[in-house]
Amino acid sequence: MDTRDDRQLVLACRRGDDYAYRVLLSRYESYIYSLCFRMTGQREDALELAQEAMVKIVMGLNSYQINLPFKPWLRRVVINTGINFLRRRSPDLLSLDQDIADGLTLGDSLAAGNSGNPQMRLEWMETRQALEKAMQELPPEYRLVLTLRHQEGMSYKEIADSIGIPVGTVKTYLFRARNRLRQMLKDVYGWEA
Fold it and tell me: Where are the domains of the chain?
């Protein structure tokens, strides 16, 4: 196991160390795929996007400012690559609370999902699956802002800057996305949010 930190690995990559490239990418591989999947909602698209993002990360390492944290830079590359990917796929691109959008909790469901109670665990798994399915039904721009806000923890301004839209549009997309999710969950599952 390589114990070098991200900065050391990037410096090694810049010197042409192929092993450092592999270590750096393998360190973030699951994060990149997870983010890509949340952006696209489709396994095949996520794999394609993750591969494209990894190439851009490798090609862009010289532009990374070594004195700044690496993960936010990497996330920005993945998000920008994802935005371009979604625009190519969908040219028109561009209460549920944070816990629900995170896919982590629904009321006390996090505790239920981690409890030893099989019934509560089953209900939690069903809730999570329903939410994930509903998220995939959202338009790409709504799914993107929800992902960036609630799963990546980005501020409205960070989202706006990342995808090149006004802050007001980010807020509108989030509002509409949450309302659509509420309505889908109500219509399909009879849930009142």
Answer: 6-89, 98-189
